[in-house]
Specification:
Strand content of chain B: 15-25%
Number of domains of chain B: 5
Structural class of chain B: alpha+beta
CATH topology of the largest domain in chain B: FAD/NAD(P)-binding domain
Number of strands of chain A: 0
Radius of gyration of chain B: 30 Å
Radius of gyration of chain A: 29 Å
Largest interface: A-B, 54 and 65 residues
CATH superfamily of the largest domain in chain B: FAD/NAD(P)-binding domain
Number of domains of chain A: 2
Oligomer: heterodimer
Shape of chain A: elongated
Helix content of chain B: 25-40%
Structural class of chain A: mainly alpha
Number of helices of chain B: 24
Largest sheet of chain A: none
Chain lengths: 292, 816
């Protein structure tokens, strides 16, 4: 029988849990506990403070330091993800902690403000932080729901194979168009040369391909007058069926790119807002101490 | 009558060419016969620009032709120059038809031209130059050819390519590559699919067929060849069509029939066996010498050295020390007792039972692959649970086996002449017990490949290993204080059976009661519930099956079938029942185990009542994984598609922890339900890639990982042998600038495998030529944190599992 005990094996991440459920919601529990403690302390302390609660009290400093430290640590995920070191670490654990501790910032930083908002650099930092958190929450939603759709769409086809299919259909179109007359050949050229697969990020995200060259070519092909010879008629039928196949292949690939774009869209807010937040945070801290 | 040469050398590959060059330098009257119109056809047919390596590096080259690693063209040029300089008498286009006569007066008949007479013959024809021929009527017509050198030379022809392997497909695709040549090409394939061809080749072929550029005829064979016409048998009947040229690519085999017709005996009827040879390479037919790949030496350096040596032997220098002598001296230097190399060889050969049947020449070759070690009393030869697949033979002294892991004082001795470690060799599993030297001991450690070669060459060795293995496996599985004497009756009637994948050894409902031990491979147990086969459990090698029917004398309750090609030992029921009645301890052990298995069965049946869909789901997922080769995997990467966001961080992590090349392809591979099996090494129990590695560079590491070490010569055999397509041939890209430079200044290609363009540019800037080598997953061997792909997955989609961990019934709730 298989042997147990005395293994020289290294740690293997065998546990089959997603980043949200990681270690039975360990980081969710940590974050919740943190929030509960902080809220409790806040309302307990706030009663006894001389002035209305704000960032300048000892509790404000404590919360501010914790929040700033968290923000910097959370931003480090971008580095952790890219530096592949040999030691024991799990990016999944990092992401899990990133999500839950990041969400707990909504409580920590809000209490730090003491609910004092205004048109100043301090509130800007707060707003940017909230933007990062909200976009992150969207990211969590995307990561939790979109993979199913992504893989449901592609089945077992890879990105490379999708491109190859379209390339091979183009080559077949080229061959099939040989007997055609000038007008019909132009239509085929339109499909082969002008079809734009993806386009801008916005285009991919919104799936707006109304002006797709292949679609226009197909419409024009169907509007062509009846061909002169039987050979041409046969070729035309073949071209039409190939263009239809190409339309299907294009929509599969575009749907794939659409879902991928959706998976990435939140990052376009999350990452720039993070950098803006770091800058605003520095300004906030410097200004606080400068005007002390 | 023509001249009588002292020696005729047949085949001008590295071995034959070296022999001829040395004969010429020595002034021996000689002739070198080459079938084609150029030297060394096998190397000649390597693809253009291929980097040829010179291994083993430690072996000194002793030949009159030079050879060092380099491009194919450079090496061929060098050899042509050397052969000319030596003044070799070479005869091109001289294909040998038959060899008759005796030593001193052989006659070599050629397909064309005068016969050649020689006193001695050196056969150096290798194994590559013997393509399988067409056998239908008209196969000898001149327009039937077995090779395609330049597809560009044919225009406006009707060409039929026969063979659905890579060679056939590549030839066919070459012929249609340029539509301007206006060839009409048909490909005949004997089967319905193309199981032996690489996927990109098949895809390309099918796309070309769909585009109407090539005709593919499946399940079709040639029936009659006529000038300009070909008649074929299709599933729909015979059909005859235009055909100006036939290119047959139906594989190659060692030309055994021809060699045997010369009077040479092979070591065994095994297809891979080699001719029996004396220490001077003389075959069983006096006067005919066999060297090179045909003698079982596939490496160029070996071949060239043998060419030199055989000419020395023929010219009477029997005292010549083999070129590998210094290697063996170094290998045996550290051993106690100052014996010479030949004394050591004889010492080992005569003392270790399984080596008794070897010739001195085989012994030499054998020892080059093996290690001889001396142990002091108490030294561990290997430790329980260590990974290891080598076999040990005891030449002197004895060892003791610590059979009880909790008490090292309980030991079983193994004496001089016997072997141990055979279970690891056969089943590929970890070592089952710690073994220590009982007294000063000398053991020979035989690596897996060498041991398998030994078993195929020497029937006596095979029988010995089989007998000892069965005996020990039975003892190890059933334990319970059994001794070899107890089980002799059971073993006497036991039977070793090979099982094909999917073939059942036990069928549900059958009345049979034999017990089976899984020696290698693995089994899956299925039960028919409501007309559907439901997966019950996975039985790895080293376990047994079939005890319920034996003990209860009832019909079989489940079907047991092979997950992969397996070997089982059948133990007949009656002697085993008698054994049980004699050994109550064993009987109790088996009852307990049987009860546990029964509980599992009942559990599954009860689950079936409650939520049928879940069991079906589990069963089909398990079957899918088995089909994906998980049954022979020891550790496999799976991706949960419901979690995978497609970020490819796993691939980037892989590339960044391995010289910049990713060894996994996340997207490729098959998917079932939400389980995706990416193209990544499964670390098979019996790795297909290991089967034909000339420098023996593929090894199994301490954590079970199968890896390729630095002695890889880039021949690509492993890539072709891997059924899962996880090995790639590539050269590591130049070093990237550090990550922070990329992050701050955008220098370099960033994390992950650099693009082809960047690599090409950077390699050019760096200069120097590096060969393409085989690259595959090494499970991040030596990295404390374990596989980088799993560590770097942000969502937990990537997991690594071993089959018994994944396919256990306990998981049934998880699938709901």
């Amino acid at each position: 029988m298989s042997q147990v005990g005395g293994h020289t094996e290294r740690v293997r991440h065998r546990t089959h849990e997603g980043f949200l459920r990681h270690r039975s919601f360990f980081w969710a529990q940590v974050a919740t506990a943190l929030c509960v403690v902080v809220v409790g302390v806040y309302f307990f302390v706030a009663r006894d403070l001389a002035e209305p609660p704000n960032g300048g009290s000892w509790l404000g400093y404590l919360l501010g330091t914790m929040s700033a430290g968290l923000i910097v640590w959370l931003a480090c995920l971008g580095v952790r993800k890219r530096v592949i070191t040999a030691g024991h670490y799990s990016l999944k654990a990092w992401v899990s902690a990133h999500v839950y501790l990041g969400l707990s910032l909504t409580i920590l930083a809000t209490l730090h403000t003491g609910f004092q908002f205004g048109w100043n650099i301090h509130t800007l930092a707060y707003v940017l932080m909230m933007a990062v958190i909200v976009s992150g929450a969207l990211g969590v939603w995307a990561y939790a729901t979109l993979p199913q759709r992504l893989h449901g769409n592609r089945g077992e086809t890879t990105r490379r194979q999708m491109l190859d299919t379209i390339g091979s259909l183009d080559a077949q179109l080229h061959e099939a168009a040989q007997p055609l007359d000038r007008a019909a050949a132009d239509v085929v050229r339109l499909s082969i040369e002008q079809t734009d697969l993806g386009g801008s990020f916005w285009k991919r995200l919104t799936q707006s391909y109304g002006d797709c060259a292949n679609r226009r070519a197909l419409a024009r092909l169907r509007a062509l007058p009846a061909p002169g010879s039987a050979v041409q008629a046969e070729a035309l039928t073949k071209v039409e069926s190939l263009m239809q196949q190409k339309a299907d292949a294009l929509s599969l690939a575009r749907r794939q790119m659409g879902i991928t774009a959706l998976l990435e869209a939140w990052l376009f807010v999350h990452i720039p807002a993070t950098f803006a937040l770091l800058a605003a945070l520095i300004a906030h801290i410097v200004s606080v101490f400068a005007y002390w | 009558m023509s001249e009588l040469y002292k020696v005729a050398i047949i085949g001008s590959g590295p071995a034959g060419m070296s022999a001829a060059a040395h004969a010429a330098r020595k002034g021996l009257s000689h002739v070198l016969l080459e079938k084609t119109d150029h030297l060394s056809d096998t190397i000649f047919r390597y693809q253009k620009g291929k980097h040829v390596m010179a291994t083993p590096a430690v072996l000194v080259l002793r030949a009159d032709c030079q050879f060092e690693a380099g491009k194919r063209e450079k090496i061929l040029d060098q050899w042509n120059t050397d052969v000319k300089a030596a003044g070799v008498n070479v005869k091109f286009n001289a294909e040998v038809k038959a060899i008759t006569g005796e030593k001193g007066a052989f006659t070599i008949e050629l397909t064309r031209g005068e016969p050649i007479r020689a006193e001695n013959i050196v056969l150096a024809i290798g194994t590559q130059g013997n393509p399988n021929r067409m056998r239908c009527e008209g196969a000898n017509l001149p327009h039937v050819q077995y090779q395609l050198d330049d597809p560009g030379e044919y225009t406006d022809e009707h060409i039929t390519v026969i063979g659905g392997g890579d060679a056939g497909i590549e030839n066919a695709m070459g012929l249609i590559a340029d539509a301007g040549q206006n060839n009409s090409v048909t490909l005949l394939n004997r089967g319905a699919d193309f199981p032996t061809a690489k996927k990109p080749n098949v895809d390309g072929l099918l796309a070309a067929r769909d585009a109407g550029r090539i005709k593919v005829m499946a399940e079709t064979q040639a029936a009659l060849i006529e000038d300009g016409w070909l008649t074929v048998d299709t599933p729909q009947g015979q059909t005859r069509y235009r055909c100006d040229r036939i290119i047959a690519r139906m594989g190659a085999a060692p030309p055994r029939a021809f060699i045997e017709s010369c009077g040479i005996t092979f070591a065994s009827p095994d297809r891979t066996a080699f001719p029996i040879l004396s220490p001077t390479f003389e075959s069983t037919k006096p006067g005919i010498y066999v060297i090179g790949a045909l003698a079982g030496y596939p490496l160029i350096k070996h071949c060239m050295n043998q060419g030199y040596d055989v000419v020395e032997f023929i010219s009477g220098n029997t005292a010549l020390e083999p070129a590998d002598e210094p290697l063996l001296v170094a290998k045996l230097k550290a051993l106690p007792g100052s014996r010479s190399v030949s004394d050591w060889l004889e010492f080992l050969r005569s003392r270790v039972e399984i080596l008794n049947g070897l010739s001195p020449l085989q012994m030499r070759e054998f020892l080059l692959d093996s290690e001889v070690r001396a142990y002091r009393p108490g030294d561990a030869v290997f430790i329980r649970n260590e990974q290891g697949s080598s076999l040990f033979g005891i030449a002197d002294g004895s060892v003791k086996v610590e059979v009880d892991p909790s008490n090292p004082n309980i030991t079983v001795p193994i004496g001089e002449g016997s072997i141990f470690g055979e279970v690891g060799l056969i089943s590929g599993r970890k070592r089952g017990a710690t073994i220590r030297a009982a007294e000063p001991t000398i053991c020979v450690e035989i690596p897996r490949m060498a041991a398998l070669k030994l078993m195929s060459q020497v029937p006596q060795a095979r029988e010995t290993v089989n007998r000892i293995t069965t005996e020990r496996q039975v003892l190890q599985i059933f334990k319970s204080g059994l001794t070899p004497a107890d089980i002799q009756e059971v073993l006497a009637t036991s039977e070793v059976i090979e099982v094909r994948p999917g073939e059942p050894i036990i069928k549900e409902g059958d009345i049979s009661d034999d017990l089976y031990i899984i020696r290698s491979g693995s089994m899956i147990v299925e039960k028919d519930l409501g007309g559907k086969p439901v997966f019950m459990s996975y039985v790895p090698a080293g376990s047994y099956s079939g005890e319920m029917a034996m003990i209860e004398r009832a019909p079989r309750v489940a079907t047991v079938k092979a997950a992969i090609r397996s070997t089982v030992v059948k133990l007949p029921a009656d002697p085993f029942r008698r054994l049980l009645s004699r050994k109550p301890e064993l009987a109790k052990r088996m009852y307990d185990e049987m009860r546990a298995r029964k509980e599992v069965n009942e559990f599954i049946e009860s689950q079936k009542e409650q939520f049928g869909g879940a069991v079906d789901m589990y069963s089909s997922v398990a079957n899918f994984l088995i089909k994906q080769g998980i049954g022979e995997a020891t550790d496999v990467l799976l991706i949960d598609e419901s979690l995978c966001v497609g970020c490819d961080n796993c691939e980037r992590a892989c590339a960044d922890s391995h010289d910049g090349l990713s060894r996994l392809n996340r997207e490729a591979g098959t998917t079932f339900a939400n389980i995706h099996v990416p193209t990544s090494c499964r670390h098979c129990e019996h790795p297909h890639c290991m089967s034909d590695c000339p420098p023996n560079a593929i090894r199994r590491g301490p954590d079970g990982e199968v890896f390729i070490n630095e002695t890889c010569i880039g021949c690509g055999n492993c890539q072709r042998a891997c059924p899962y397509g996880v090995i790639q041939m590539d050269k590591p890209p130049p070093k990237k600038p550090p990550l922070w430079e990329w992050m701050l200044f955008g220098k370099g290609p960033g994390p992950g495998q650099p693009s082809y363009e960047w690599r090409k540019k950077a390699a050019k800037a760096e200069g120097g030529e590096s060969p393409k080598l085989a690259i595959k997953c090494d499970m991040c061997s030596g990295k404390a944190g374990g596989p980088a792909c799993v560590r770097a997955c942000p969502t937990g989609a990537a997991i690594r599992v071993s089959p018994d961990a994944f396919l256990s019934v306990a998981r049934i709730e998880k699938v709901t």
